[in-house]
Amino acid sequence: MKRLVVLGGGESGVGTALLGKQKGYEVFVSDKGSIAERYKKVLLHNSIDFEENQHTESKILNADVVMKSPGIPDKVALVQKLHSEGVKVISEIEFASQFTDATIVGITGSNGKTTTTMLIHYVLKKAGLNVGVGGNIGDSFAEQVADGNYDEYVLELSSFQLDGVEKFRVHIAVITNITPDHLDRYEYDFDNYINSKFRITKNQTKDDFLIYDADDEAVQYWLKNNKTEATLVPFSIEKELEYGAFLRQDTIIMKLNTEEKLMKVSELKLQGKHNTKNVMAASMAARLLKVRKNTIAESLSDFEGVEHRLEKVQKINGIEFVNDSKATNVNAAFYALECMDNPTVWIVGGVDKGNDYADLLPLVREKVKAIVCLGLDNQKIIDTFANVVDVLVETAGAEEAVKVAYKVAQKGDTVLLSPACASFDLFESYEDRGRKFKEAVRNL
C-alpha cells in the first residue's frame, strides 16, 4: 500500500486526504499549526491519521508521495529534506487530476483570476454543463474528484499550486496578466514568477488552448522566448487581432472560426478595463467549449461579481464605501483606483510582499484626497505618498480605519479599501479583512 503524506490540514489538504484514502493509499495528515475543528471532524469521521502543531519527521519522510499545501514555501527545511531523500512532493491539483477524465479549464494570473474563474463557471453552468469550480477558491478540487460528479472543472490556480505540477494538463489555460507579486517566494526574481505562471501550459498539446492578454508585457516576453504546443488565443483592448478577442469601437469582437460581435462594453454588468479583459477571456473559454454566443452575452449582462472585489458596501450620507480587500498587490489596487470616478479616501496597507508603489503615483495624484493606513508597518506608504496627498493617517484596525475615513470624506466621495498588501498582520485573511471592513461600515 502506497503511503501519502499530506502537509497542511486545510481545504486542499483534507480534500487530498479523502481522495487518497478512497484510492487505497495509507494516508497521514500533518499540520505545523492547529487544524480547524470542522476539518478535524472530517478526518476523524473518515478514520484518517493526523497530527497538529508539529511535524514528526519519522512519519513524514517514509512517504511514497507528499502533497504540500500551497501555503508552505519550498525552502522550508522539511520540504528540502524530502527533496534530498528523493520523495516526490506535489500539489493537490497534480494529485487529484490523475483520477479524473473531466475537461479542465485552468485560470492563473496576478489579478482577475477569481473573477474570471467565477465568470467562466457561471457561463458554463448557465449553458447547462455539469461543471465544478475549485482550485484556489471554493471546495477542494481533490474532494470533488473523490465525489466524481463533474464533466468539467474550472480551476483557479495560483503560482504556488502550479509550482507543484508535473503531469497536470488543462484543456483550456487562461493567463489573465502577470505583474510582480509574491516575489518573496521567488528569490525576488520576476522571471521565476513568470515561469511559474506559465507552468499552466507545460503539458498542453496542439489540441489545447492558451488564452492570454496580448497587451501584457511579461506574457509577451515569455511567449517570445519560449514554446508551447497549445493553440494561442490572445485578447486585447488596445489593438485589433487576426484571431482572438478585441474591441472595435465599444463592441467586444470574438474571432475564432468566424468573426462574431459579442456585446457592447456598456452592456456588461462588470465595469472597468480590467473587467473587459476578464470578460474576453471567459467568453472565449466558453466559446471553445461550444457554448452559444447568446448564452454567453446573457450571462455577462447579469453576472454580479465577486465578494471583496470592488464590492459596493453601502452609501452613507452621500459617501460610497467600496470593499476591495482582495486587492493584495499593487496592480490590483491600480485597477481599483483606475475605476474610481469620485474623489477617493483610500485605505491601504498590510503585509508588504516587496511592493513598489511608484506605479500608483499618477493615479493617487489624480484621484486620492486622503490616505488611511491599515497595517503594522506603513513606512513605505508614508515615504511614497506623504507629499502627494493632503491627509495621511495611520490606524490600527478596520473599525478605526473606517471611522477616520468617514470623518475625512465628504458627500460625493468614495471610501475605498484596496490594501495592495497581504492581510496577515492584523487579520486572518483578506476575507476576514473585508468582512471586518463591511461590519465597521454598517456600524457607523
UniProtKB/TrEMBL annotation:
Its main location: cytoplasm. Keywords: ATP-binding, Cell cycle, Cell division, Cell shape, Cell wall biogenesis/degradation, Cytoplasm, Ligase, Nucleotide-binding, Peptidoglycan synthesis. ATP binds at G109, S110, N111, G112, K113, T114, T115. Its EC number is 6.3.2.9. One of its GO terms (biological process) is cell wall organization. Signal peptide: none annotated. Pathway: Cell wall biogenesis; peptidoglycan biosynthesis. It catalyses: UDP-N-acetyl-alpha-D-muramoyl-L-alanine + D-glutamate + ATP = UDP-N-acetyl-alpha-D-muramoyl-L-alanyl-D-glutamate + ADP + phosphate + H(+). It holds the Pfam family Mur_ligase_M. It is found in: Cytoplasm. GO terms for molecular function: ATP binding; UDP-N-acetylmuramoylalanine-D-glutamate ligase activity. It comes from the Bacteria. GO terms for cellular component: cytoplasm. Residues 308-421 form the Mur ligase C-terminal domain. Residues 107-286 form the Mur ligase central domain. Cell wall formation. Catalyzes the addition of glutamate to the nucleotide precursor UDP-N-acetylmuramoyl-L-alanine (UMA). NCBIfam families: murD. Belongs to the MurCDEF family. This is UDP-N-acetylmuramoylalanine--D-glutamate ligase. The gene is murD.
